[in-house]
Each structure stands twice: as C-alpha cells, then as structure tokens.
Amino acid sequence: MLRLAPGWELQVERGPDWLFVRIRNLEPDSSEIPDLADQIWTLMHQHLIYRVVLELDGIGLLRSELIGELLRLQRRIGQQGGLMRLCGLSAENRRILETCGLSDRLPIYECRRDAVLGRPTKPR
Predict the structure, then answer these.
(1) For residue 16, which phi and psi values (nearest 5 degrees)?
(2) Tens of pLDDT, residues 66-112
(3) Of 36, 60, 123, 124, most Cβ neighbours within 10 A?
C-alpha cells in the first residue's frame, strides 16, 4: 500500500504487460487531491510498463480535480504509446464521465479482466 496524501492510498499489482492500481480515498470529504498523475506515472516508469488499469471502486464521487488528474495521466501515457483503462466505477461516476463527454477519452470497463481484454462496459 502506498500512501499519497492524507486519506489517499494506492494498491499496486504488476501483471503480465499491465500495472493494476487500485485508488482508495479514505476521506471522501477531504478537499486535498494528491498529485495522482505524477505518482502513477512514476510507478509505471519504475515498473517499465506503460499499460495501466485504474481500479476506482475505492473512491467516492468523481470530482473535477480528480477527473483532471486522470486526463493528465491519460495524455502522458498516450504520448508514450501506452494505454490507460478504468474499471470499478460506480454507476453515478460512469454517468459523470458520460455527461462530461469523457467516456471515449477515459475508457470504462466493468472489471480488471474486461479492461485487459478491451471489452467495454455495455450501457445499462
């Protein structure tokens, strides 16, 4: 477990060709958002893997600051020729990304396996 900032943790697992990062926000009311993009980028660089699945079942409501960090990370990974996929989003958080028009830029998958295989979440 890697602590980022008060109330924020990353659980990191390495799989073949992918890095799996579960993001946990233990204090959902906290206004402090860690420098998530740089932290995850550093992990990817250390593991020499540029494919990452972010498991977001451990966060509350997706706030604009966190979405900004995800977009910044996505852009950086894309410039390296890598892939970033999201899974574990609540229905409410999926709707937030869809409403913002970001579901194409931040691909959403039901689970880790679907993210690795590239099977997108079907609309409900």
Answers:
(1) -65, 115
(2) 999 999 999 999 999 999 999 999 999 999 999 999 988 999 999 99
(3) 36
Residue 24 bridge partners (DSSP): 9, 58
pLDDT for position 121? 61
Q: What is the pLDDT of residues 29-67, one digit of tens each?
A: 666 777 899 999 999 999 999 999 999 999 888 889 999
CB pairs under 8 A, 24+ apart, for 74-78?
74/105, 74/106, 76/37, 76/41, 77/41, 77/44, 77/50, 77/52
Rg of the Cα atoms in the chain: 13
Half-sphere exposure of 41 (CA within 13 A, CB side): 16
Give the residue from 79, 80, 77 showing the smallest Cα distance to 107: 77
Residue 20 β-bridge partners: 13, 53
CA distance 43 to 38: 9
This prediction has a pTM of 0.90
